[in-house]
């Protein structure tokens, strides 16, 4: 992050210097170009910060590891909200796609999952390769909780999230509480999930 910031500032300084050295430009146009370059540099910086916050890779153990499987982005948004909430409570939490869960160190306290179900009980694109390269035995004894997202109008309601929870439990992971099933991101059920999580930790 720091290196990227220094690079953006260096490029801003260089291009600004070039603008002021150009002959034939009036002072008004030079100031306008300088402001435009500064605004562009700010946009680059904000985009870099946003990408940094959304990077799934983590280093070192945290209190919680939040894995999400999403197709439209709803599960990822809820996972990000979950991380912010835990951070306000003084806990550390890392975020990753379910497909990349095998690459992450295990958390100190619990694994939290937010998994959407697509179509007729199918996995979303960020969870369709799990647990292909993951040794589920490593989760033995690890506390976990599942927030399963779906739509009650489909017969296989929350099937993928329930399947993931079942696989983890069969591998010896310990559920903090039964999976919470949420239809169409119902806020009342999401709040119920938080209540269960607060009681569990």
Shape: elongated
Radius of gyration: 22 Å
Indicate the multimeric state.
single chain
Structural class based on helices, strands and sheet pairing: alpha/beta
Order of helices and strands: HHEHEEEHEEH
The share of residues in extended strands comes to: 15-25%
Terminus-to-terminus distance: 33 Å
What would the average pLDDT be, to the nearest integer?
84
* Tally of DSSP helical segments: 5
Number of strands: 6
Main beta-sheet annotation: 6 strands, parallel
Low-confidence runs (pLDDT<50, min 5 residues)? Answer: 52-59
The percent range for helix content is 40-55%
Give keywords:
5 helices, elongated
Give a brief outline of the structure:
With 201 residues, the chain is an alpha/beta fold. It has helices spanning 2-21, 27-54, 74-88, 159-170, 187-200, and strands spanning 64-69, 93-97, 110-116, 143-150, 174-175, 180-183. The chain is built from five helices and six strands; from the N terminus they run ααβαβββαββα.
Question: What does the model show?
Answer:
Residues 52-59 have low confidence and may be disordered. α3 links the parallel β1 and β2 (93-97). The protein has five helices and six strands. Strands 1, 2, 3, 4, 5 and 6 form a six-stranded parallel beta sheet that branches. The protein has helices at residues 2-21, 27-54, 74-88, 159-170, 187-200; strands at residues 64-69, 93-97, 110-116, 143-150, 174-175, 180-183. The chain starts with a helix and ends with a helix.
